[in-house]
Design brief:
The structure holds two protein chains of two kinds. Chain A is of the alpha+beta class. Chain A has five helices and five strands; from the N terminus they run βααβαβαββα. The radius of gyration of chain A is 16 Å and the shape is globular. By secondary structure, chain B is mainly α. In chain B, helix 1 crosses helix 2, helix 7 packs across helix 13 and helix 9 packs antiparallel against helix 11. Chain B starts with a helix and ends in a 5-residue tail after the last helix. The chains are: A alpha+beta, B mainly alpha. At the A-B interface, helix 4 and strand 4 of A face helix 2 and helix 4 of B.
Chain lengths: 112, 274
């Protein structure tokens, strides 16, 4: 499968993040793993770019976040878990509809 | 782990933002790198290879820093000039993760009351000591007639902190805070308008209760305050008191909050090439 790299992904990263979080809350690294799995390994984005996207979405009220509780036994620094808000779900639905419309129109032109 | 911390610090340290936001970035990036290194080690890479892979996959530090800086609200970006020790005040006066607007308002109101109360006590004590020592001339500030003095006292305590809390609530409810928070996506005129609206909300909430409270006890004083405020003498007196209060209070508050900053001292001690 052909790889999809940074610049092609940039405009869609926020929608993809909202989409994977629909399954349940996750921290940054897990979000990336979900994206890699869903993209069948074809998505090649610089991992750091995820965090500015998460912060933007949080600022817009589409996500909320909380630090994981201390009692969860694990190694290393604590992680911050993100969760979709009701507003985020509505925004995801809106963007999905917009994306389907985009694909339908552009696909119709390109495939013709 | 220190190598990973250094790499994170190279990215985050130059960012202009309050210390709470920067520490959030630090912890998250460090957690991410740690996970990536662990995964690479489980795949059979040695420590050095795992570190190099994790750093390479995180992306160019300068580019990531720019993107992270873009997420910092414009007002905060402007406020955080690279001055030493200004980060100490962040934790007490900034909204915490997951904290509700109401909770933040109440907490900030309580902290600001404490700040203003300490300011008032220290300022008045210092003023009296200086006057007793003959350093300040007799009659200074006593030339401020009663309505002006009442206004000064009220402006330093009580009504001010309540206005601050209520202004934040209003800014949240009206969406003003969200407009001010965005670096991109809002035009400069819209942002300027939002900033004036926020300042107007604050000033209105601050002035009206002040005058109403004084008028409740001394109706003729309320009207006199209004006249005094807009006079040249009234504004000058307020400016002098505000500057003196700030110069006295700032070091005291900085010392009180210093211990909170100590837990992140390890980041500040890392030597990184900026």
């Amino acid at each position: 499968m052909e790889e999809i790299k940074g610049n092609e992904l940039r405009g869609h990263l926020e929608m993809m993040v909202l989409s994977v979080l629909e399954r349940g809350e996750a921290h940054g690294y897990e979000i990336l793993q979900r994206l890699e799995t869903a993209g069948c390994g074809a998505l090649k984005l610089k991992e750091g770019t995820l965090y500015p996207a998460l912060y933007r979405l949080e600022e817009m009220g589409l996500l909320t976040a909380r630090w994981e509780a201390n009692e969860e036994p694990r190694r290393g620094p604590r992680r911050r878990n993100y969760r979709l808000t009701r507003k985020g779900k509505a925004e995801l639905d809106r963007r999905r509809a917009s994306w389907r419309n985009f694909v339908a129109i552009i696909g119709g032109i390109v495939e013709a | 782990m220190d190598e990973l911390r250094k790499h994170v610090e190279r990215i985050v340290r130059p960012i202009r933002a309050n210390v709470r936001r920067k520490n959030k970035m630090r912890e998250e990036l460090l957690a991410h790198l740690s996970e990536r290194v662990h995964t690479a080690a489980c795949d059979g890479l040695d420590e050095r290879e795992a570190y190099d892979l994790a750093v390479e996959q995180l992306g160019d530090p300068a580019a990531l820093r720019r993107e992270l800086q873009e997420t910092v609200p414009a007002v905060e970006w402007l406020m955080y000039l690279p001055l030493p020790r200004t980060e100490i005040a962040d934790h007490w006066f900034d909204k915490a993760d997951g904290e509700s607007t109401l909770g933040f308002t109440l907490r900030r109101t309580a902290y600001t009351s404490l700040f203003v109360g300490i300011t008032l006590v220290v300022f008045l004590t210092a003023f009296e000591l200086l006057r007793w020592a003959g350093i300040l001339p007799e009659g200074l500030l006593t030339r401020v007639h009663p309505p002006g003095r009442a206004f000064v006292v009220l402006s330093l305590f009580g009504i001010q902190v309540l206005a601050t809390g209520l202004a934040y609530l209003l800014a949240d409810v009206t969406g003003v805070r969200r407009v001010l928070s965005r670096r991109n996506g809002s035009g400069v005129w819209r942002k300027t308008g939002a900033l004036w609206l926020f300042m107007g909300e604050y000033l209105f909430l601050f002035l009206v209760p002040s005058i109403l409270l004084v008028s409740a006890f001394q109706p003729e004083v309320g009207l006199a305050i209004l006249r005094n405020m807009i006079s040249e003498g009234g504004l000058r007196e307020l400016a002098v008191c505000s500057v003196l209060a700030f110069c006295v209070a700032f070091p005291c508050v900085g010392l009180i909050m210093k211990w909170e900053h100590e837990q992140y001292k390890r980041w500040g001690q890392l030597e990184v090439d900026d």
